[in-house]
Write a structure and sequence with these properties.
The longest helix is centred in the middle third of the chain and has 10 residues. Strands 4-3-2-1-5-6-7 form a seven-stranded mixed sheet, with helices on both faces. It starts with 5 loop residues before the first strand and ends in a 6-residue tail after the last helix. It is 31% helix and 15% strand. With 197 residues, the chain is an alpha/beta fold. The radius of gyration is 19 Å and the shape is globular.
């Protein structure tokens, strides 16, 4: 996966709690087995009318939010079914970071394994970000120093599991982590003597 060290992007304030994975990527689009191509279906039922035309009232169909890469949401983001496609759809659309007061555990794990940064912040800070995210509003996210900041006076620290931080900084997914020990695995397989010999 791609390393994520620093990111600056437009904030998209999606002011709804309990956004479940079926809203993020509806079930009818789960037939693909690739990790790509889901971005066009992100929040499909909220973004589009039955005839496929965009709903102008939905935030991703409005400037400047349609070019956003940092999603700001309310508590319990990613609840519902365990579909990994939700993380893929957000990333395929162009999101690199999701900020919320809380995340569903499985979504949080799926996001981490795919390089989508989820930042949990106290509700009062998320409230302040929603107040600021009216129109053009960008945040700087620094994964190495675990901070977010804007061009005004905001600077907030966040926490992250050290292992997950290392994976993001170095772009390591589960396969890359295994391959990092390829020599040790090969040595073990070469030197292992079965007990039945």
């Amino acid at each position: 996966m791609e390393a994520l060290r620093q990111h600056r992007g437009q904030v998209v304030p999606l002011d709804r709690p309990n956004i479940d994975t079926d809203q993020i990527i509806p079930k009818q689009f789960l037939k693909r087995i690739e990790r790509t191509g889901y971005g066009e279906f992100l929040f499909f039922d909220w973004r589009f009318n039955a005839d496929g035309t965009p709903k102008p009232e939905f935030i991703l169909n409005q400037e400047p939010y349609n070019s956003g890469s940092i999603l700001l949401a309310r508590k319990n983001f990613g609840c519902g079914s365990s579909r990994e496609h939700a993380a893929w759809a957000l990333m395929n659309y162009g999101f690199s970071v999701v900020i919320a007061p809380s995340f569903a555990d499985i979504f949080h794990s799926n996001a981490a394994k795919n390089g989508l940064l989820t930042i949990t912040l106290p509700e009062e800070i998320v409230d302040e970000l929603f107040r600021r995210a009216n129109g053009k509003y960008e945040l700087n996210v620094d994964v190495a120093n675990l901070t977010i900041s804007d061009d005004r006076d905001l600077r907030v620290n966040f926490t992250m599991d050290a292992f997950r931080q290392k994976c993001l900084l170095e772009g390591l997914d589960d396969i890359a982590l295994t391959l990092a020990h390829e020599d040790a695995i090969s040595t073990y397989e070469r030197d292992m003597v079965p007990a039945w010999r």
